[in-house]
Amino acid sequence: MVIKINYSKCCWEDGKCSSCACGGACVGCVEACPVGALKRGKIVEIDKEKCIDCGACISACKHGAISFV
């Protein structure tokens, strides 16, 4: 399986949190990844070579923006 981000649901846009009250100090999918396969830039990006498809980011996403496909 492959991890996919639905950017229409993702709270991280243009390098900042756009929907919750974290003030840019988001603790979610990126922090949950045990191998550092996700990073925040302008958007949340997945390094598919690092990703081990464990699903930790899926569980950590409060917005339901990450899933297996």
Offer a few descriptive terms.
globular; Alpha-Beta Plaits; two-stranded antiparallel sheet; 13% helix; 2 helices; alpha+beta; 69 residues; single chain
Query: How do the strands of the widest beta sheet line up side by side?
Result: 1-6
Integer-rounded radius of gyration: 11 Å
Structurally, the number of domains stands at 1
Tally of contiguous helical segments? 2
CATH architecture descriptor: 2-Layer Sandwich
Give the biggest beta sheet: 2 strands, antiparallel
SS content category: alpha+beta
CATH domain class name: Alpha Beta
**Helical amount:** 10-25%
Alpha carbon gap, first and last residue: 6 Å
**Shape field:** globular
Low-confidence stretches: none
Output the helix-strand order: EEEHEEHE
Oligomer: single chain
The overall average pLDDT, rounded, is 90
CATH topology (fold) name: Alpha-Beta Plaits
Describe the structure in your own words.
- This protein has two helices and six strands; from the N terminus they run βββαββαβ.
- The chain is globular and about 30 Å long.
- It has one domain (3-68): Alpha-Beta Plaits.
- It has a two-stranded antiparallel ribbon with strand order 1-6. Strands 2-3 form a two-stranded antiparallel ribbon.
- Helix content is 13%, strand content 23%.
Summary of the model, kept short:
This protein is α+β, with helices and mostly antiparallel strands and 69 residues long. The chain has helices at 29-32, 56-60, and strands spanning 3-5, 12-13, 16-17, 38-40, 44-46, 66-68. Helices cover 13% and strands 23% of the residues.
